[in-house]
Specification:
Blueprint lengths: L1 E3 L2 H11 L10 E7 L3 E8 L2 E8 L5 H24 L13 H12 L3 H6 L4 H13 L10 E7 L17 H4 L3 H15 L5 E8 L8 H11 L8 E7 L6 H9 L4 E7 L3 H6 L6 H11 L5 E8 L6 H14 L3 E6 L7 H5 L8 H14 L3 E6 L10 E5 L6 H8 L3 E5 L4 E6 L4 E6 L4 H6 L1 H11 L6
Parallel strand pairs: 1-2, 5-6, 5-13, 6-7, 7-8, 8-9, 9-10
Antiparallel strand pairs: 2-3, 3-4, 10-12, 11-12, 14-15
Helix pairs in contact: 1-2, 7-8, 7-17, 8-9, 12-14
Length: 460
């Protein structure tokens, strides 16, 4: 348990506590004060007081709140790190986007390395962050009017045990498909006047290729009038058990430039354990089927899947490199609310996670891939990260824009979260559509009006 005068700060501090298994039982209290230049506080843990203080200047209330959070989390991290004799790869950082902090520090001081070091970030991860910023050069751009379009198709053949998305087996959701496709068509038609400088289109899920070819073509046809500038166009094709030549041909016909083949693992034993109904060789065949169409290919792997050994994960990395996709993203398994795996276990041990991550960095770098985006999530095994690697010139614009929140994101469909970036005000406004398919369908008119308002149109 953790008691704190500010509820928002207590939530932030609990993110640090969870990094240290067993710390949640300690009974921690916290109090702090600040005059805008000096931040002082005290943690009480097991009857022992741990005071701390930092000197810094807050220019406004928003910055003061941010600094209080930063220094309180750092102080608690240092206390627990010493108590448990354990240092973590990202130190006291618990946020989703470390690179956002790096960019902010660069803008303020001209460097981020000393800042990250003071927060306990390892030398390896400071170096990784620097490589990611370099990998984003020429792609990262903060400009008023930049926008990406996301289309949600939350349908899957089956649900994997690690998945927390709203997807359900297609057998249970197909009855909603006709109404859902009509709703997407309405949303996309209403979205056209709201898009300014469109940088990318991304159809995600779920597993979009689980749709029948004629259903998928309806989505492509609805998107076509919005993508007249020929920007990057990605389809998260997903799992090989739903690949067909007809669907790949439709992607080519409508100008798709990139597809995702979500391998996750090249171990048959692991694939069966996570609920997949295909083999590793099926993934290889999906690559072979897609290559003649000339798409850039993104491939996902997950480190730490159910019972997977270091050797099995290393083989997955080796196999992915041999298949030579343009992008390889290495995810760290995390326990998310709504995932079957979360229901079956409360925590994830680090195990060989550090070795897995280290191997992927070394192997992918040696193969000519460079990291170009990274993000983190709560409850990640070993407190690591998800990192996307790309061949030279093959970074995915959508991934950079979304992870850095450097462009507006107009998202349509169930569980789609639109974001409007207000650069001059330093804030981001979000609008989430309902996750539940029937609720989304019933509230479509309200959803469309909300997006018109968010992106600057009161009415047509």
């Amino acid at each position: 348990m953790l008691s704190c005068a500010s509820e928002w700060l207590a939530c932030e501090l609990m993110d640090v506590v969870r990094l240290f298994p067993g710390a949640e039982t300690l009974g921690i209290s916290h109090a702090c004060e600040t005059d805008g230049t000096r931040f002082a506080g005290v943690f009480c843990i097991g009857g022992e007081n741990f005071p701390y203080s930092f000197e810094d200047i807050a220019r406004n209330e928003t910055e003061k709140k941010s600094l209080v959070k930063r220094y309180a989390k750092l102080a608690l991290y240092n206390i627990l790190s010493e108590k448990y004799h354990k240092k973590l790869p990202w130190g006291s950082l618990t946020g989703i986007r470390p690179t956002r902090l790096a960019y902010a520090s660069l803008e303020k001081t001209g460097e981020f390395e000393n800042f990250f070091s003071a927060l306990g970030v390892s030398k390896e991860n400071i170096a990784l962050t620097a490589r990611v910023l370099e990998g984003q050069r020429g792609v990262y751009e903060r400009k008023e009017g930049n926008c990406d379009l996301f289309v949600s198709l939350p349908f899957c053949p089956t649900k994997c045990v690690y998945c927390s998305f709203i997807t359900a087996p297609i057998a249970a959701t197909r009855k909603f498909m006709p109404a859902y496709l009509s709703a997407l068509e309405r949303e996309l038609e209403a979205a056209k006047p709201l898009l300014k400088n469109l940088r990318s289109v991304y159809i995600g899920g779920g597993t979009p290729f689980v749709l029948e070819a004629e259903e998928l073509e309806r989505v492509f046809q609805a998107i076509a009038p919005l993508r007249e500038n020929g920007c990057e166009y990605t389809v998260e094709a997903g799992r090989p058990d739903v690949f067909t030549e007809e669907k790949l041909g439709l992607c080519k016909k409508y100008g798709v430039t990139r597809i995702c083949i979500n391998a996750q693992s090249f171990s048959d034993r692991t694939l069966a354990a996570i609920g997949r109904k295909h083999s590793a060789q099926d993934v290889v065949r999906a690559f072979e089927m897609a290559r003649p169409y000339g798409f850039d290919i993104n491939c996902d792997l997950i480190a730490g899947l159910t019972g997977e050994t270091i050797a099995e994960f290393e083989n997955s990395v080796d196999t992915a490199v041999a298949l030579s996709p343009e992008n390889i993203t290495v995810h760290t398994l995390c326990l998310k609310k709504g995932a079957k795996l979360k229901e079956e276990t409360a925590t994830l041990s680090e195990g060989g996670m550090s070795a897995m991550i280290a191997y992927s960095r070394e192997k992918l770098t040696a193969a000519g891939y460079a990291p170009y985006y990274l993000y983190r999530q709560k409850y990640m095994a070993g407190a690591h990260e998800n990192t996307g690697y790309a061949k030279p010139g093959k970074a995915c614009v959508y991934n950079v824009d979304v992870m850095e929140e450097s462009a507006d994101n107009l998202a349509v469909g169930a569980n789609a979260i639109s974001k409007r970036v207000f650069y001059s005000e330093g804030r981001i406004e979000r609008l989430a559509s309902p996750k539940d398919l029937p609720t989304y369908l019933s509230k479509l008119d309200k959803i469309i009006e909300g997006k018109k308002k968010l992106f600057g149109f009161a009415s047509f």
